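Hi everyone, sorry if this is the wrong subforum. Our group has a chain we'd like a structural model of before ordering constructs, and none of us has done structure prediction before. Sequence below.
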Amino acid sequence: MKRCKRMMGIFLAMLFLIGQLEVISGYASDGGRLERPFYNGLAVVCRDGKYGYINQSGDLAIPLQFDFASCFSEGLARVQVGDKWGYIGRDGYYVAKPQFDYASNFSEGLAVVRVGDKWGFIDKSGYYVVEPQFDYASDFSEGLAVVQVGDKWGYMGQNGYYVAKPQFDYAYDFSEGLAAVEVNGKWGYIGQNGYYVVLPQFDRAYDFSEGLAPVRVGDKWGYIGQNGYYVVKPRFDYAWDFFEGLARVRVGNRYGYINTKGNYVAKPQFDFAWDFSEGLAVVQVGNRYGYINTKGDYVAKPQFDFASGFSEGLAVVQVGDKWGYINQNGYYMWEPYWDDASSFHSGLAVVHHGDFSAVINSGGQSVCEEQSEYGDLDVTLGGHILYYYDGSTYLVDQYGNILSDGYDMFGY
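Answer:
Right subforum, don't worry. Here is the predicted structure as tokens:
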């Protein structure tokens, strides 16, 4: 087993000194495998077809014994033995022994389970709150779950009683207190009491975000408020959810952004555009990518061959076949140098150059690096370092020390 080799920042010294150049003249990609393996302090691992869990010190906390296992959710994890599913606690003991034909993660204190072809709900003690009786059931969202009986959909509360009996042709989860439902080809919204807030009248309707929902009438999209009145009358060829106070819209084959009043912040002019992240959005003009701010002004004009969304104040950009990082002012932190690079998560990112891969921190110092002939490195969304070698995955600390045994699979 190889040990990751530690470096002390020399790897990036020259790049850091020359990296303060303005970007004046970008879709979003990420070079890392962006999983978040640890939930409630434990991560799923697998070896030779058996699943168990390790803790963040790399120790095996729950032995490799299951035919499948999922991440922990609300303190419990679903596991499979043979063709049956059950639930365990963080101590590895069963809360509900394998008995279900399918089981979902816990959400808002309850989990959906299937026995035969019927779906029901159990609590964290493993007892039925609602016996299997539905043809389908979703996870709880905002205290209510979508359930199907025959070809109709309704909503059930956590007490097992209907808030809205199955009557809709289709139904979405609740979002910001309202849920989109379809009746006879038209869409409207109900409140958490099961009564209509907006009668079915739209040809399509999506979830609310930041107080507004995109709706379609004919072939045009607009936005309504939670009272059902138009905030933006249908005039777009497509419309997306609001993020950070702005929403992407398309007119013809051009993309732009509007604010919550329906006014353009950036008129449709881009060949493609992405949602805002940390106050900036990736936009595409021709085959180049750049960034605009929430006023619609360029922070970095389209000049990159590829660009990622901002994460922790930095974004990965590609020029030619090399990758670098810019800050939110549009200045290079590190000019394109690497053959591949990932976004920062929990203060760490992974970069590749030639025969080496390295984990760097936001100050540009290399925390751990490895020759490719001996393996590869990665950083997860949770900031954990993984080391891949000879078909196995190892957990590594920020000093490059291997903490765990090697596993065929890490995180799920």
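For your construct planning: The CA atoms of residues 268 and 395 lie 46 Å apart. Confidence is low (pLDDT under 50) at residues 1-34.
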